Amino acid sequence: ELKVEQNPLFLSMQEGKNYTIYCNYSTTSDRLYWYRQDPGKSLESLFVLLSNGAVKQEGRLMASLDTKARLSTLHITAAVHDLSATYFCAVGENSGYALNFGKGTSLLVTP
Amino acid sequence: KAGVTQTPRYLIKTRGQQVTLSCSPISGHRSVSWYQQTPGQGLQFLFEYFSETQRNKGNFPGRFSGRQFSNSRSEMNVSTLELGDSALYLCASSHDLRETQYFGPGTRLLVL
Predict the structure, then answer these.
(1) What pLDDT shows up at residue A51?
(2) Which of A33, A42, A90 sits opposite B105 (nearest CB)?
(3) Chain A within 8 Å of B1 (Cβ-Cβ)?
(4) Rounded to whole angstroms, how far apart are CA atoms B66 and A108?
(5) Residues B49-76: what's their mean pLDDT?
């Protein structure tokens, strides 16, 4: 069974600081997704990572994938309040079509 | 391009009743997946359909079922509702496996 672990689960950071969220998964996969969820809302797609060494950037967020280490990171640069949300990583099963989600990282950016 | 739509958005039912939720994918998307989100269990996969065929089912009891129509619209049904079925039910669509899955706004189900 594919298990996905995110850490930290809660993160409070000051505006302007950098931080990294980690996503580890237990078995081989060839697709990893990052999503953002605002309170009471649905999931917004941030990144799709499909190969070892893939790196994608959008604004202050950068995601990377190391399939050998079974690790993805979401790096936040110079955080701003608007980035406050819950961030999920989701890993696709090689033998199926399901996405297995981590528990999410609840990020709060304070002045 | 219109996004994934789900109806109804909110639903209140009592234990023992059944419920049907609907999902219309983004135009051209043939894969539709359903997920249940609860504070305790997080996001859990229910099932995935592609061209009217269920390709994958998650670890949920048989009370949870679904189907997909020829126009790719999908429905899921929960029979004999239990209190623990209270959740946000999310539908996602994509062209296929290795592409972005776009999520709808969800149906929030409360079972009393």
Answers:
(1) 87
(2) A42
(3) no
(4) 37
(5) 95
For residue B8, say if its preceding peptide bond is cis, omega within 30 degrees of 0.
Answer: yes
Asked, as a colleague might, if the bond just before A8 is cis with ω within 30 of 0, I would say: yes
Whether the CB of B42 is below 8 Å from some CB of chain A: the reply is yes
Higher pLDDT, A95 or A103: A103
- Give tens-digit pLDDT for A2-31: 899 999 999 999 999 999 999 999 998 889
> What SS3 string covers chain B?
CCCCEEECCEEEECCCCCEEEEEECCCCCCEEEEEEEECCCEEEEEEEEECCEEEEECCCCCCEEEEECCCCCEEEEECCCCHHHCEEEEEEEECCCCCCCEECCCEEEEEC
Average pLDDT along chain B: 95
CA distance B104 to chain A (A): 7
For residue range B18-41, list pLDDT tens digits in order: 999 999 999 999 999 999 999 999
Mutating which of A1, A6, A42 best tests the B interface, going by the most B Cβ atoms within 10 A? A42
Closest CA to A94 of A67, A74, A73: A67
Summarize pLDDT for A34-65 with one digit per residue, the tens. Answer: 999 999 899 999 999 998 899 999 999 999 99
